[in-house]
Amino acid sequence: VFHEILGVPQPERVPAVELIDMIWQGAGVSRPDKSANARIDDYVARILAYKRTHRGDDVVTGLITALESGELRDEGEVQGMLSGLIGSGLITTVTLLASSITRMLQYPEQLRAVLSQGAGWDRAVEETLRYESVVQVSNFRYAKDALRVADVDIPEGSRMLVSLASANHDERRFEDPDVFDINRAQGRHMA
Asked: How far is residue 44 from each of residues 2, 36, 53, 74, 173, measured CA to CA in Å?
């Protein structure tokens, strides 16, 4: 499905499992594998070259069109966006599936509720996203103006990192936030 959204036909695809391996190797915690990052960059370049001659109603064609119309700065921005889409589209999906399976096995009563049609899979997915955020923190944000959040003064221009996982366990927003409950009144999570 991911490649279809991007507009990459089967013969042009690197299998998802290979892409995931490259992403994990390239982002290695202690020693990132630069050759893995180079392979991802090569794949991105191949996709862009292919889509320039095989346009369609897809995300990559949209990025190329945005570059040509001046909405995007340069080729590097397009490559960065496509690399980010590949990484986020694959890693977040794999992590969500693993977390969902783990939570259903950890809380068999929740699994029974889904299987008995007492609750839908959509609720199970939304609660999994809330309970165990696939993305734990946001990208860095910068304060446009000086501001105060809770009891903290943040000077203009300060760099901030927002904990999405913490927000998803905020007791002011979710009743019993540390309980995995697919039948909870659905609040808006930050996943």
From this structure: 14, 12, 15, 15, 40
**Predicted local distance difference test score (pLDDT) of residue 28:** 65
Residue 143 · residue 156 · CB < 8 Å: yes
Please report, for residues 33, 120, 133, the alpha-carbon distance to residue 19 in angstroms, rounded to integers and kept in the order given: 13, 31, 22
* Residue 20 and residue 94 in contact, taking contact as beta carbons nearer than 8 Å: yes
> Buried (b) or exposed (e) across 134-148, using 16+ Cβ within 10 A?
beeeeeeeeeeeeee
Tokens representing 171?
Answer: 């007791």
Q: Give the contacts of 22 (CB within 8 A, at least 6 positions apart).
A: 14, 36, 37, 39, 40, 43
pLDDT confidence bin for 81, thresholds 50/70/90: very high
Q: How many residues does the structure list for the chain?
A: 191
How many CB atoms sit inside 10 A of residue 54's CB?
Answer: 14
